[in-house]
Write a structure and sequence with these properties.
Blueprint: E1 27-28, H1 40-50, H2 62-72, E2 79-82, H3 84-96, E3 103-106, H4 112-119, E4 124-127, H5 137-142, E5 146-150, H6 162-171, E6 177-180, E7 201-206, E8 219-223, H7 225-238, H8 245-255, H9 258-281, E9 285-286, E10 293-297, H10 303-312, E11 315-316, E12 328-332, H11 336-353
Parallel strand pairs: 1-11, 3-4, 3-5, 5-6, 6-7
Antiparallel strand pairs: 2-8, 7-8, 9-10, 10-12
This protein binds 4'-deoxy-4'-aminopyridoxal-5'-phosphate (PMP).
4'-deoxy-4'-aminopyridoxal-5'-phosphate (PMP) binds at residues 84-86, 110, 150, 154, 180, 182, 206, 208, 214, 219.
Length: 354
């Protein structure tokens, strides 16, 4: 830390993204990317825009937001697009949390939430998940503050039924509930259709997972116009050109290809179930994942050891050192071949411990 670093950030522990090592090629199952590259049409749309990069992007992202409004059945002014969904999440912490309205989220969830809270100097409260890693909705029905729920949750993959989300949102119209649906396309129920009824609901989505655009950095928020207007105020006060021209074009092209994305999601879901079965056959315990990853532990191989040994064999998975989940690894569902390689490597490691 330099001696000029502001005191207000001196205690900040930044978020640690999944590793992107360059020392060799790995089967990368650690950051929940899609195994499918973007389509030709998406690549062509981005390439075409690259020819106009001397010009700023549209600060209103009109083309993309119109396409989003149409795709999700909301109004144009109920949409905001951002540089990854991380950005709209950060905007939500900035806009809807303060001393009187702490951020509230589970003790095991997306690791960026406590960082966003700390970055913005807002208090936060972590509510323990039940022993089986499910959320007890009652905990959130009673709580005062701004609620952040990843649904399906990460890294567990467990989804909360939409009726429970609705109960939490309806319990207190005076507080905002942010539902982070990064993984919803892989098996959760989206809260988007609750938006017309609840002015305190913000739904956050991303193009990074089911739409194969993690590297484009494109996320979005959907909510009634008043919440969205607050987020635009924050956006115009930080970075009005937050979505670049190529990404805006790629996003709009992706929305025009719902069938293809849907087909990819179905393949990933099938691969997930097949891999889960194979791992269960090797005595792994798995959470019921509705996401594009599995969360698994083996009764006789510590989580960190499995992570390390897989890495030595050229397979990267994600291990978290939080005590409650240190026995587990989060394994992205990659291609069928990648998952076969994973299962084969794991089988060898299990044999070794016998
Ligand atoms: N929410 C959750 C639960 C996530 O796991 C991630 C991915 N790390 C994000 C949001 C952010 O994704 P992105 O910024 O790529 O949209």
């Amino acid at each position: 830390m330099s001696r000029w670093f502001s005191a207000k950030y001196s205690a900040l522990t930044p978020y640690t993204p999944g590793e992107q090592p360059k020392d060799r090629s790995y089967i990368k199952l650690n950051t929940n990317e899609s195994p499918f590259p973007p389509s030709e049409a998406v690549v062509r749309a981005a390439e075409k825009e690259a020819r106009s990069l001397e010009l700023y992007s549209d600060p209103e992202s009109v083309v993309l937001r119109r396409a989003l409004a149409e795709a999700y059945g909301v109004d144009f002014n109920e949409t905001i697009v951002t540089n990854g969904s991380d950005e709209v999440l950060n905007f939500a912490f900035m806009a809807f949390c303060d001393e009187k309205r702490p951020a509230i989220f589970p003790d095991i969830t997306y690791g960026f939430y406590p960082v966003f809270a700390a970055l913005n100097g807002v208090p936060f409260r972590e509510i323990p998940l039940r022993d089986d890693f499910t959320i007890d909705p009652e905990d959130y029905i009673r709580s005062e503050g701004t609620v952040f729920l990843a649904n399906p949750n990460a890294p567990t993959g467990i989804a909360l039924p939409l009726c429970m989300i609705e109960r939490i949102v309806a319990a207190d119209p005076d507080r905002v509930v942010v539902v982070d649906e990064a993984y919803v396309d892989f098996g959760g129920e989206s809260a988007v259709r609750l938006i017309p009824q609840y002015e305190n609901l913000l739904v956050v989505r991303t193009f990074s997972k089911s739409r194969s655009l993690a590297g484009a950095r494109l996320g979005f928020g959907l909510a009634q116009a008043s919440l969205i207007a607050d987020l635009h105020t924050i956006r115009y006060s930080t970075n009005p050109y937050n979505v670049n021209r190529m990404t805006e074009a790629a996003g709009a092209a992706s929305l025009a290809e719902d069938e293809l994305n849907h087909a990819h999601v179905e393949i990933i879901k099938n691969t997930r179930e097949r891999t889960a079965k194979a791992l269960a056959g090797l005595s792994f315990e798995l959470t019921p994942s509705c996401a594009n990853f599995l969360f698994a532990r083996h009764p006789s191989i510590p989580g960190e050891e499995l992570y390390r040994k897989l890495k030595q064999r050229g397979i990267l998975v994600r291990h978290f050192s939080l005590p409650r989940i240190a026995d587990y690894n989060r394994i992205t569902v990659g291609s069928a071949e990648e998952m076969d390689a994973l299962v084969a490597a794991v089988r060898e490691l299990v044999e070794e411990t016998k």
